[in-house]
Amino acid sequence: MKKGILLSIFAISLLAILTSGTTDDNGKAGYTNSPGESNCTVGCHSTFALNSGSGSVSVTSNIPSWEYTPGQSYSISLTVAHTGRSLFGLGFEALTSTNANAGTLTAGTGSQIKTKTVSGVSRRNIVHQLGGGSGTTDSHTFTFSWLAPTAGTGNVTFYYAGVAADGSNGNKQDYVYTGSQVVTEFVAPSGVHELVNGVNDVRIYPNPVKNEFILNYSLAENARVESGIYSLTGQLVQVISNDNQTKGHQSELVNLNENIGTGVYILYIRAGETTRTQKIIVQ
Fold this sequence. Notes:
Blueprint: H1 2-20, E1 56-61, E2 67-68, E3 73-81, E4 88-96, E5 104-106, E6 111-118, E7 121-128, E8 139-147, E9 156-164, E10 175-185, E11 199-205, E12 212-219, E13 223-231, E14 236-245, E15 248-255, E16 263-271, E17 274-282
Parallel strand pairs: 2-10
Antiparallel strand pairs: 1-3, 3-8, 4-7, 4-9, 5-8, 6-7, 9-10, 11-12, 12-15, 13-14, 13-16, 16-17
């Protein structure tokens, strides 16, 4: 009986050893190489020096020109790439200039939130789930969201790390890549408050537009805002807004109607006594 139990334990242990190299472990917080932190090559994926491989880690987002609007939610994608690898992991955090948490991170598919206390701050990290970075070859993209912090926070820095795992030898033979991205806070020009029920600082990103764009503008006072997209012949092809809005900076994600084809259009926006127009190029 004891012999049978021992054999079962041995079989389970052997299975764990054989599968440990093909399924990545849960990610750990606090290894993004940010101020006060270490990185994944220290005491873990230590075979190769940091950023020494032929792969890469990169971050993209719908944050226009890496300038966030306070209180706006954004999508963030982190891609780890390394030719010949099919198992990947990540670590990501957003910090203020004083290295406190900036805004709110929300995990997506294959990722989760974990925390680690660094210099008295419980830093929130996006990290991979068990096997969350598998299923693709040569690269893997993790997508999650970030709610920008309140006005007055100032510059935010994204710190991130990516692991391209060997998949056959535990934590050895794995490459680690790190990077960072500064995101500035959008601050409306002070002159906008000199307008009476006016709209100013109208910005569209991106432009040219494919399927959607972000419309930013500022209101000096509470006002009813009418906005839409017109063809060059003067035909209204899409209504964006027609409602009362409060003063301050406004940001709206606009999805183009399916009947809008490629070409040049005019964005029209009116608030109180002020009307603004801007050219839109649809690709």
